[in-house]
């Protein structure tokens, strides 16, 4: 049992490292839109191990980003709203790990892709809701002239969230179709 726990811990640490490496790839357009491809390994981990381990690893990733200074920190509250809570929320993709395992057992590619899509959209809605809140409270002053902070935050965070979700679905869906072994936590 301890061996499995150690493997899971190491896998989580590796996924955090891969996520951070992916975060260095420029995917932003301007200062308000980006596709966060670092979400891919975090959501993959959650789908492999479930939501409990998923939220631990996703929260650890958010804290890691804070620790290395890879954040735009204005106040303590803003930092929590934008870097701990949203990353924590990504781990909730793991709520769908059970249904995904069932789709794997039934050898249903179509159902597996549907579950990956729903899990990713669920996690991204949770995550980007908090980015939206921070956008209204902290970044609204940067809204283009004539836009209020709610519309500004909804449009830009919504676009980033949707683009991120699509990127995650495409990559994880491709991985699922290519090697379903990746979605079995104890593959050999």
Keywords, separated by commas or semicolons:
188 residues, mainly alpha, Arp2/3 complex 21 kDa subunit ARPC3, two-stranded antiparallel ribbon, 7 helices, 2 strands, 2% strand, globular, transmembrane helix, Thia_Transptr_ThiT, Proton-coupled thiamine transporter YuaJ, transmembrane, membrane
What does this structure look like?
The chain has 188 residues and is an all-alpha fold. Helix content is 71%, strand content 2%. The chain has a single domain, classed as Arp2/3 complex 21 kDa subunit ARPC3 (Orthogonal Bundle), CATH 1.10.1760.20. It is built from seven helices and two strands. A hairpin with a 3-residue loop joins strand 1 and strand 2. It is globular, with a radius of gyration of 17 Å. The model has no long low-confidence stretch (mean pLDDT 91).
**If you compute it from the alpha carbons, what radius of gyration comes out, rounded to the nearest whole angstrom?**
17 Å
Order of helices and strands: HEEHHHHHH
* Major pleated sheet: 2 strands, antiparallel
Strand count: 2
Helix content: over 70%
Offer a quick outline of the entry.
71% of the residues lie in helices and 2% in strands.
């Amino acid at each position: 049992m301890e061996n499995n726990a150690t493997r899971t811990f190491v896998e989580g640490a590796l996924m955090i490292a891969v996520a951070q490496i992916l975060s260095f790839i420029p995917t932003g357009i301007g200062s308000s839109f980006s596709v966060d491809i670092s979400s891919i390994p975090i959501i993959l981990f959650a789908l492999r191990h479930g939501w409990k381990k998923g939220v631990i690893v996703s929260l650890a990733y958010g804290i890691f980003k804070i620790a290395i200074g890879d954040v735009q920190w204005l106040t303590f509250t803003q930092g929590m709203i934008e870097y701990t809570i949203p990353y924590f929320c990504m781990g909730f993709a793991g709520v769908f790990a059970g249904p995904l395992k069932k789709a794997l057992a039934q050898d249903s590619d179509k159902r597996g892709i549907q579950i990956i899509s729903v899990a990713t959209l669920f996690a991204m809605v949770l995550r980007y809701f908090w980015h939206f809140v921070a956008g209204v409270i902290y970044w609204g002053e940067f809204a283009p002239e004539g836009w209020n902070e709610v519309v500004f935050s909804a449009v830009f965070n919504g676009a980033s969230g949707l683009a991120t979700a699509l990127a995650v679905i495409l990559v994880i869906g491709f991985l699922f179709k290519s090697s379903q072994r990746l979605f079995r936590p104890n593959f050999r």
